[in-house]
Specification:
The protein is α+β, with helices and mostly antiparallel strands. It is built from six helices and ten strands; from the N terminus they run H-H-H-H-H-E-E-E-E-E-E-E-E-E-E-H.
Amino acid sequence: MRNAALFIAALLTLTGAATAQQSQKEAEKKLRALRGEIKTVKKEKAVIDNKREDATVKLKEADEKVNSSARQLAGTQDALARETKNIDELQARQDVLEKSLASQKVNLAKLVKGAYMTGSDAPLKVLLSQDRVTEGQRVLVQYQILQRDRNAKIQAINSDLRELVAVRQAIEQKQVALVNTQALQKRNLSDLQRERIARDALVAQLNTQFQAKEVREKALGKDAKSLERLLANLRAAAAREAARKKAAAEEARRVAAAEAAKREKAYEARAREAAKRGAPPPPKPKAVEVAVAPRAAIMKVGGLGWPVSGSLLEAYGGDNNGLLIAAPAGTAVHAVADGKVVFAEWMNGYGLISIIDHGNGYMSLYAHNEALLKDVGAVVNKGDAVSTVGNSGGANQPALYFELRRNGQPVNPAVWLQKR
C-alpha cells in the first residue's frame, strides 16, 4: 500500500511538473528521491523478513522443546501411576501378613497355655500315669508331635515377622522412589514453564515484526501454498498406496481363481475316475479365502467426533478453511475418524501439526498443538488422542485449528461433525 501511494504521488508530482512546465532537472530529482524511498522500503522489508526468519527458527526450537518436555512429563506421570499401584499392592500384602501374624499369635498363646497347664515334666507324668507301658509310649509320642508343632508355629511366626520387615522396607524404598519421581516431575514442569515464557516472548516479537497487513497476508499466503503442496503430495502418496493395495488384491484374487479352477478340474477328473470304478465321488475341494485390503474409514455427514471440547473462536467461511476451537493447554486432541498419521512435525504458520489420512480422499488436520502424541505411520482409531492443545506457531492463545479436506479441497467441518 505504501509503495502504491508513493508511486501515485510520484505520478501526480510529474504531472504537476509537466503542467507547470517545471524543469526536467526538478522532475528527475523527485524521481530519484522516489526511487530512493522505494529502495529504503525494500531494505526495511528485507530486514523484517530476516527478523521473521530468525524469530520463526527460534519459535520452532522453543515449540519443539515444549513438545519434548510435555512428552517427558506425560511419561513421568505414567511412572508415578505405576509406583502408586506398586505401593497399593505392597500395602495389600502387608495387610495379609498382619492377619496371618495375628492368627499365629493366637495359636501360640493356646500352645503356651497348654504347656503351662501340663508343666515342664509333662512327658514323664504322662508315661508314669499309664497302666501299660505301650499306651504310655503312644501318648508320649503324641506329646512330642505337639511339641514339634509348637516349634514349627513359632518358626512360622518368626518367618512372617521377617517377611513383614522386608515388605515394609520395600514399601519405604518405593516411597523414596516415588518422592524422587515427584521431584523430577516438578523440575520438568518448571522447565516447561520457562520454555513457555520464552516461546511467548518470541511469539510477541514475531507478531510485532508482522504488524503490516500486506506483509502478514503474503506470509499467510505462502504458508497456505506450502500446506496445499504438502496435502497434494500426501494425497498422491495415499493414492499410490491405495492403487498398490488394489492391484495386489486383484492379483491375489486372480491367482486364487486360477488355483480354484485347477482344483475344480482335478476334482472333476477324480470324480470321473471314481464313477468308472463305481466308487463314491471324492469330497469337493474347500474354497480358499482371499485377503482383501482394509476398507477406508466411513466418512458420514454429521457422524464424525469432535477433535476437542471447547468454545468456537472462528468458524468456517471466507478466508478461514477450518475451525479454531479454544481449549486449555494440554487438553487431549482426538482423531475424528479412523485413519493413519501421514504428517507430524512443525510447520511455519501452523506450529506443531498432525495430519491424518482417512482414505477415499479424506484428510483431517490438527494445528497449533503443544505436543504430538502419534508419529508418522501410526494407525489411529476414532477418538484416539493424537496431540494436545497448545499455541505453537504463534497462535494468540491455546486453541486447536482443525481442517477437514476432501480430495485436497477444504470442506466445512461443522457439517461433518456431530451436532452438539
